[in-house]
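Summary of Year 1 activities. Much of the first year was spent building the evaluation harness for sequence design. The harness presents a backbone, in tokenized form, and records the residue chosen at every position. We chose the following record to illustrate the format because it has been used consistently in internal testing since the harness was completed.
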């Protein structure tokens, strides 16, 4: 499992070691979880949201304050540390704010009762993610025709969530339904999430998967070897602009040029109705060494400058559909995305 919780510690499957080695990292405080998120030992928008919630529960257990105001101040400091670990994925902020609301709405309670409430809320966030992903899988698989060849980017499976996955979960559901789909995984430079993680998960699930270099996608589309592009998201703006792993925008442009459906899968917690469009989404810049080195081995000359934006923005007009646990949204997204939230509340 991506995250393993025993109410006193959080064990994180170290994704930097996959696929060669399966090992866990033990987290006992918010700082440990923040480091695991920042170093991409745990990654994927839903997974880091759940991990942050557990991190705040761990911190609550470690805070020695007995007075509520001081306890809350320390908790908010820990939340700020966790939120700052990665700025683009909105699930991180969403989970932390949900945790803090538990404290602020608690009324006349003791610190011990708050600690228990925070632990329960973190466990609820994780459990909900599993149910959410199953629902996304069902809604999305209904769009998939028999025998489709589905191209995906980065990793959106169990490793990116608490369990099952978002975009990968759709492909996995279609596979389990006997639709005979095949998966084409882009390697996803520079961190190789597609090569290291998606291919690993697909093989374990018994799926037909083919790994390609990122720059081979256009050639496959031109040959008629791709029927659908299916990706996840780290944040979706109110107008339907999608922030996802760098390279997603290029795939969307290629899909439009070849008249191939481009479908995004994400939970409602990834949709940020407070962000009007993609221009307002912060893009994380990661270390240049991830580009100039591969597994610690230099692949570029010493002294060369390198840019390493972790995400890009796909404009909403290139997105065919957005699949969530509440259903499928189609353009115009400024109307259909808020409607999904209203339907869930109703």
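For this record, the design step produced the sequence shown next.
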């Amino acid at each position: 499992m991506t995250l393993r919780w025993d109410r006193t510690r959080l064990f994180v499957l170290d994704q930097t070691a996959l696929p060669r080695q399966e090992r866990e990292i033990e987290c006992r405080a918010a700082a440990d979880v923040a480091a695991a998120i920042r170093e991409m030992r745990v990654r994927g928008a839903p997974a880091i949201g759940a991990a942050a919630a557990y991190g705040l529960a761990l911190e609550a257990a470690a805070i020695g304050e007995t007075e509520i105001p001081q306890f809350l101040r320390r908790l908010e400091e820990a939340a700020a540390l966790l939120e700052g670990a990665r700025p683009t994925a909105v699930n991180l902020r969403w989970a932390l704010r949900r945790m803090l609301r538990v404290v602020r709405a608690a009324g006349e309670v003791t610190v011990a009762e708050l600690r228990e409430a925070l632990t329960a809320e973190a466990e609820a966030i994780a459990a909900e993610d599993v149910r959410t992903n199953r629902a996304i899988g069902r809604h999305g698989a209904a769009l998939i025709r028999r025998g489709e060849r589905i191209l995906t980017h980065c990793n959106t499976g169990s490793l990116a969530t608490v369990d099952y996955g978002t975009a990968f979960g759709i492909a996995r559901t279609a596979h389990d339904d006997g639709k005979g789909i095949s998966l084409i995984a882009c390697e996803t430079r520079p961190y190789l999430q597609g090569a290291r993680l998606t291919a690993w998960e697909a093989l374990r699930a018994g799926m037909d998967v083919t790994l390609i270099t990122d720059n081979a996608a256009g050639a496959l589309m031109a040959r008629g070897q791709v029927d659908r592009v299916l990706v996840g998201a780290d944040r979706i703006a109110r107008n339907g602009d999608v922030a996802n792993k760098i390279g997603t925008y290029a795939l969307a442009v290629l899909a439009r040029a070849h008249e191939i459906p481009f479908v995004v899968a994400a939970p409602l917690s990834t949709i940020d109705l407070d962000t009007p469009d993609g221009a307002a989404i912060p893009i994380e810049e990661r270390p240049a060494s991830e580009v100039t080195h591969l597994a610690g081995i230099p692949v570029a000359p010493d002294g060369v400058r390198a840019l390493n934006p972790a995400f890009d923005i796909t404009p909403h007009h290139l997105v065919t559909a957005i699949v969530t646990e509440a259903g499928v949204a189609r353009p115009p997204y400024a109307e259909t995305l808020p409607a999904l939230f209203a339907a869930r509340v109703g």
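The chain is about 40% helix and 15% strand. Quantitative recovery figures across the full test set are reported in Table 2.
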